Amino acid sequence: SCVSETAVIAPAQVVEKPQDVVCVDDHNHASAPMTRAPAPEYVPETPHHSDWQRPSFHFEGKGAAGGHSATRVASAPATRPQPVE
């Protein structure tokens, strides 16, 4: 059995594009209208539950860092730079 289908072809519609308006001033540079691109839809990340806890840390020290908390004296005294001749 042979079945033939008839396709209905609709005439193409002509869509007129709006003309871009360019302002012409007495400037020495080009100008063009701004275009806007659609932004993708924002999808926030799903929150996740975590049972992580910071491991305990036992600190043994003076609690400060730097020369004002040094426990020993420097091995050499401060020196002056050599004069430039």
Automatic annotation (TrEMBL):
Provide an example Pfam family for this protein: PNPase_C
Biased composition of type Basic and acidic residues is found at 46-61
Question: What's the superkingdom here?
Answer: Bacteria
Region (Disordered), start-end ranges: 30-85
Location of the Polyribonucleotide phosphorylase C-terminal domain: 47-82
Please report the name of this protein according to its UniProt entry.
Polyribonucleotide phosphorylase C-terminal domain-containing protein
Q: Which organism is it from?
A: Salmonella enterica subsp. enterica serovar Poona
